[in-house]
Amino acid sequence: MIDTEKPTQEKEIKTQKADINKKKEVEAIVNIYTSFNNTIVHVTDMSGKTISKVTGGMVTKHGRLKANPTIAMFIAKRIAENVKDLGVKSLYVRVRAKTGNPAPGPGVHAIIKSLSRSGFKILNILDVTRIPRGGPKKKGGRRGRRP
To answer: Residue range 39-68: average pLDDT?
Structure first.
């Protein structure tokens, strides 16, 4: 008699191990808002629920340092600690500067670099800075300002 139960049990154990090793990769969105006065990082899941939020003021006591690249590294470190516990492996990054500014603040590159160093896979970096189109009517009347 041949025992047919052993091979099936071994196969089941192997598939269970493979499932454990695969573990579902969770994705998150990192919203970075940088002005020249502050840095705000807000992490949400794909549906928009807040996972973590850290600002420059939460990391440093000095108001003048809130938009510093060094402080941005500490912000990213704190975000990484909060997010790793939830099993997030990959991130979508959205960068926003102050409305109308041509470039984001000084902390963006430091945050992205330190997040990638801490083991996250960065899938996409998107600039979502708001751009005024037209805007309100300029002062001066129909014929413009006259001297």
So the answer is: 91
Q: Which CATH number is 59's domain given? A: 3.30.420.80
Q: Tell me how far CA of residue 124 lies from CA of 14, 28, 93, 141, in angstroms.
A: 35, 11, 6, 46
For residue 132, being part of any structural domain is answered with no
Task: Report if residue 33 sits inside a domain.
Answer: no
Q: pLDDT-based confidence at 22, cuts 50/70/90? A: low
Tell me the β-bridge partners of 91.
Answer: 28, 122
Q: How far apart are CA 124 and CA 87, in angstroms?
A: 19
Domain total of the chain: 1
Neighbours of 111 (CB within 10 A): 24
Higher pLDDT, 100 or 3: 100
Neighbours of 37 (CB within 10 A): 12
Please state the rounded mean pLDDT for residues 96-104. 89
Q: Where residue 144 falls among pLDDT bands split at 50, 70, 90? A: confident
CA 39 to each of CA 73, 94, 106, 123, 125: distance values in angstroms, whole numbers, following the listed order = 11, 13, 9, 22, 17
**Whole domain around residue 80: which residue ranges?**
46-119
